[in-house]
């Protein structure tokens, strides 16, 4: 198969981890006879420095006409402590999600056999966890009206949802549940928020179309607790943008490291694949960041293109590297650790 993949390395550790995923994808392409053309494009602080905005039109054109987008990370500390900054790297990510119509963010949580005891959570609680948090990605409080009142003592961000936004996300959730354990949990704050009551009403109305799916409803504060208490109780979770952002960071603890969790963002056109971690500026340029979340995101890319063998091969080699201790320092527990680039080379060589 011929594939055009837009390559958005972004900021911080983004370029380093993306480089390793490219090595792995190229090794897969060589083994299974595909032809990948990488189309690098600017985003984030790197794009602000080069052309003054975090998601330039040229980058959008490259993404919109690609078969898929592989994304690293976005964010730079020089903006974090400057609330007055008008142009911020994160705006690039939000603009990209919106312009590409990526309304559903698929964030799986699973465990790795060789890492179970590295999680701060007890083995019996987490072993066998296999859940997906489906986060709404182009609406809610991330995109609602925000601003300051004239006196500059009041600021506001609004959470708005329209029925169609909830429906299209929930539809994906139901469809995913049908292919899995047929359990769907809608997570909201319907005891307080009107937008959450619209979520519940909308999902309840859809239940009849999926009679085999067992649907439950939970308040997000309770889910935050149950998710680490008994993650095996969940199959597919659907939730609003901000709730999903928070719950997915929490869920990454189950697998042992944030450096391991992949994601895909899907809509009606091109899909985007990215690790759930951020730009980790403290590690940028040091060749120490864990590249596996990005490598596993590439596995999701192949899976979505129905290149199942390719996806399985990536997962196999990742599991092998973990089992053999070919790991970056976040997983080494003071033992021998490998550089980001060494892990990437090892994975490519073992494909
Ligand atoms: C994520 C990140 C982003 C988000 C930031 C960088 C804007 O935390 O992808 O989870 O909040 O969506
Ligand atoms: Mn986040």
From TrEMBL:
Annotated positions binding substrate: 97, 107, 135, 221
Cofactor entry: Mg(2+); Mn(2+)
Catalyzed reaction equations: (2R,3S)-3-isopropylmalate + NAD(+) = 4-methyl-2-oxopentanoate + CO2 + NADH
Isopropylmalate dehydrogenase-like domain segment(s): 4-347
Entry's Gene Ontology molecular function annotations: 3-isopropylmalate dehydrogenase activity; magnesium ion binding; NAD binding
Compartment(s) where it occurs, according to its Swiss-Prot or TrEMBL record: Cytoplasm
Pathway entry: Amino-acid biosynthesis; L-leucine biosynthesis; L-leucine from 3-methyl-2-oxobutanoate: step 3/4
Signal peptide as annotated in the record: none
GO cellular component: cytosol
Keyword tags: Amino-acid biosynthesis, Branched-chain amino acid biosynthesis, Cytoplasm, Leucine biosynthesis, Magnesium, Manganese, Metal-binding, NAD, Oxidoreductase
Record note on cofactor: Binds 1 Mg(2+) or Mn(2+) ion per subunit.
Binding site for Mg(2+): 221, 245, 249
Residues the record marks as site: Important for catalysis: 142, 189
Keyword Cytoplasm: yes
GO BP, one annotated term: L-leucine biosynthetic process
Family matches, as SMART domains: Iso_dh (SM01329)
Keyword Manganese attached: yes
Domain of life: Bacteria
Quaternary state and interactors: Homodimer.
Record-linked NCBIfam families: leuB (TIGR00169)
PANTHER family per UniProt: 3-ISOPROPYLMALATE DEHYDROGENASE
Record family assignment: Belongs to the isocitrate and isopropylmalate dehydrogenases family. LeuB type 1 subfamily.
Name used for this protein in its record: 3-isopropylmalate dehydrogenase
Gene symbol of the encoding locus: leuB
